[in-house]
Amino acid sequence: MGRQLTSDERWTIVRLRYDEDKPISYIVDKLNTSQSTVYLVLAEFHHTGQTSNPKPSGRGTSRILTQDDIGLVRSMLKQSPSVFLDEVQDALEEEGRQVSLHLPKDR
């Protein structure tokens, strides 16, 4: 994986391409980056008007339950110790948390 471009470098890509009409190959050489990186920056600019995603989503959803989530699970277990995992999942989803039912395999 290559280095992260600075914000200035990302804006330079946009300026060189759209204001100065430079070819992609020139931009790649000038900024010492890959052709795919240049295209990704230009695509982001085309879609959002920014050179980087203003609301990055990260990879997937958070895998950590909040203290409120843990409290909900605990209270469900206190009320019904034999509650099924899918019922816990449904309750968390009603609270706006997306969780999966992946469990570790038995050894």
Automatic annotation (TrEMBL):
It comes from the Eukaryota. This is Paired domain-containing protein.
